[in-house]
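Check the record.
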Amino acid sequence: MSNNVDNIGFGDNSYRIAVYIGNQPPMDQYQHLDHLAALRLGDIANIGQHCGNGWRKVFNVYAKLLYALDKAVFSFSTLAPTWQEYRDNFLLQANSNIALLFSAPIINTAHYKTIHIIMGKTYANSLVNSKLMTAQLTWLDEEFAINKKARVIVCPYFDYRQLSNIKIVRLAELMKSLN
């Protein structure tokens, strides 16, 4: 699970799930972030308080997704009794095995353990068009795409309307299909 040192974002350097987002919290301490930083207790609440509902939704949907994954394959939901407690006490912290990356995906098919999730069709298309991502995608419909060999999934943006609970379940099933 060797991950590239060029990754910029939040989470654990030994991530097995990487979610890519096309923006980052508009807070001074994150504007010049140049590495992958583990969040600490209270950081998510602080970001939500300073950056608004959009960032709260990103963290909530990420936690709900991890909590929806099959417990036999992914152990995230065994760490806390609710997704809210998981979000507050484990999400994107040291040893969480997950990351939220602001940098472009670095897909290395030699490391098959990492699942790469690109948040939003528009962001995925911009990565492909700018040649920042070379993995060929198979679009399953207007919202979801996959490359099983590279372990890449494109899904709707982490927002309640775009990635509803039904779509979270679908994304969890796609993730399970990669294992």
In short: The helical segments are 28-31, 43-51, 53-68, 83-89, 121-129, 165-177. The longest strand covers residues 115-119. The mean pLDDT is 91.
